[in-house]
Amino acid sequence: MTAKIETRDLSTYYREKAALKGVTLSIPERRVTALIGPSGCGKSTFLRTLNRMHELSEGVRVTGQVYLDGEDIFAPHVDPVEVRRKVGMVFQRSNPFPKSIFENVAYGLRVAGERDRAVLERCVRESLEAAALWDEVKDRLHESALELSGGQQQRLCVARAVAVRPEVLLMDEPASALDPIATARIEELIVTLKEKYTIVLVTHSMQEARRISDQAAFLYLGEMIEVAPTLELFESPREPRTQEYLRGRFG
Amino acid sequence: MNIGDRGLRLLSGLALFVVLAAILAIFGLVVVEGAGALSWRMLVEAPSSDLATGGVMPAIYGTAACTLLMTVAGVPVGVATAVYLAEYAPRRSRFATAVRAAVRILAGVPSIVFGLFGLGFFVLFVGKSIDGLFYRDAASPVFGRPALLWSSLTLAVLTLPVVIVTTEEAIRRVPRELREASYALGATQLTTIGRVVLPHARAGILTGVVLAVSRGAGEVAPILFTGVANYLPRIPTDVRDGFMHLGYHVYVLATQAPDVDRARAMVFGTVLVLLVLTFVLDAAALLLRARAHRGTRS
Amino acid sequence: MSTSRKPRRRFRRSLGERIAERALALVAASAIGAITLILVFVVREALPLFWDGHEGLALAAPHRYPNYDHPVYVWQPVGYPPKYGVVPLFVGTLKITGLAMAISTPLSLLAAIYVAELMRPRRRAWIKPIIELVAGVPSVVLGFIALTYIAGATQDLLGCTYRLNALVAAIALSLAVLPVIFTVAEDALHGVPLALREASLALGARRYQTVTRVVLPAALPGILAALVLGFGRAIGETMIVLMASGNAAVLDPSPTSSARTLTATIAAELGESPRGSEHWRVLFLLGMILLLITWALDAVGRIVVRRLARRLDPSTDEGA
Ligand SMILES: Nc1ncnc2c1ncn2[C@@H]1O[C@H](COP(=O)(O)OP(=O)(O)O)[C@@H](O)[C@H]1O
Ligand SMILES: [Mg+2]
To answer: Which residues belong to any copy of the ABC transmembrane type-1 domain (chain C) (predicted)?
Structure first.
């Protein structure tokens, strides 16, 4: 199993406060890696560091390395925009643009300079199919994306991220604002997406992590406590803190 | 950095720089020359008959009196309207919608049209009617002529929207829990408004009042035909008199003084007084607004 | 009704409460009263023109005055016969406001983009109030600034024939309009949710692409509202143009020629015209026209802004 992303001794600071403390993690290609841990433990921070989204917040500082296909994404010559084109992101709350469904999906291609209408149309279709949304929206591609339901909006955001043809998808609690049915659809979607993409999934639901991830990592107070294949982590955690957390969760 | 990003930063940064530089340069020049021209004498003396020497005391007094009257007449109406809109009017009531539309339209009426209105309504209609009823024998009009009273009332109408909009916003920011706590203790709506809502919205309401005062103190067009006077060296003692006004004085000195060059020091001094007056008021409003917002966030 | 059996009076609001509500409603009606009175009393002085007849008024078409061999557009209230051709005033108003908008729109919008998108929050917190303070500067002070500094500077730079002209007035007018547009537009830009910017950047968009393709379109209704507000303020502004435009009612499109606006005409001439004269009535008519222009602008602006907002988000609330 080759590592798509490797972090080495990665620490992230908000001003003086460390939100991540020396995280070293290897994220295997075309697998789902789940990040679990109590809220505020640094899961989102970790995710945002992986595609340099953290640079948008003020006063954030990072030490350590993140390697994408063996290349350090913080090296001076690396353009963060190129990193983000390879490492896409789906946010906790769906955030479609106030544009048509079509324009939402085509956005990433357009900003990358694609003008060819036929290419755009094909890609929009493929991306919506990949996000299992095509059948629901194919007759109203030019209506506003804001008219979709919450679950549809989130799948649209997945389609939008996929359209850029990234290699990695970062998903920050993508189903936490959705009802159970929409959640199930997103989970199905993630399982199919891992055939082509490396996925890092933050989730607060132990069941979800269990159902769909291949590897799970437990973060606590900014530290990576334990990483293991999902089953192993849930069945026989080695670290006492992991055990406690899982036990507390399952009551 | 990417070339597009650099372009955006350069272009927008340049625009901001030009705006700030122009502001600083212009007001810097005015303040420097104004400060040189201003003297204690200017603040306490009346102008000479050619306006070029002496002071602007009557104009300071007139501005203050006019603004004070305006506040007394306008603020209660504005606050009451805002209370009605925020506390009583049903969300979608026709009446409230109409009042809001009226306020918005009022805010957009050009100030010179307020001048026409003040002349047509206050001076020529209200004033003349009073004269017709009570002063039939007077040799010259008593109320039916431009006067401090009419200018103040005109400005009160002009500043009404500022007071209403700011006050309504301030009242709406009062947390619901405070009201509910009051109701739960058996207080009536009126008591709740008087004892809880208005005191809590105080800073916000004051913001509106200060903004209105600042705006009213600086407007010239509405008072042109309703009461302001060119040269009136004594302090008016009656609201039925004409009055001098800082803004109008600037206009006269800058464009109509018999000897503009000789009056240069006077006009700079007057401009500085007016500028400082409005700056202080507006800065106070900004601070009050910041405080009002902070108060509700914590 | 199930409540009808209760003794009705027990839970009724007290008389005082009900009187207070009525009284407040009555006071609130004063805003409607004010706008009605404004309309009525401006119209009252203007309308007799139309039934008592008028000699020299020409609203749109050129007018042929006695001793003239062809129809002309002339505003000359003190000539013999007096000529009230309004077209030169329209042209002057449009020229000066158009110029002022041309100067202030790009400057204020770009500056707003910088402050909302590229500036650190701390710095934004003190730069915004500075510009807002300028919005409160009395227009007579701006007129004075135009006379003392701007007129000389433009003449030196461009070598204008007339010291006071449309451009000088427009520059000073920009100073009045700019902070208004800036503040409202900056609020609109700043109000665009951070989540949209993040979505765009996460898709590999550059900052400038995010601004032009996501932030600006999303803020467009607010930006448009800002421009409408600024335009309204520019058209209605009196003292600046009165002091700085040169006030010659000429039909000349050149920015460095003199110009006379509707507002300045009223301000300059009403004091000298006898009540009830044709001149007096025409000046009130100009006021009426100004009122109508600003209302129409407000109405059109609101409709366009609402349409735009609805197109961006079809679930937008009607009344918003
Ligand atoms: N923009 C920020 N500025 C300052 N502190 C932040 C910021 N974002 C997150 N933090 C802090 O960093 C820690 C980790 O936050 P986060 O990564 O969002 O946790 P999680 O996603 O696991 O709930 C928290 O203590 C949080 O308060
Ligand atoms: Mg999180």
So the answer is: 90-301
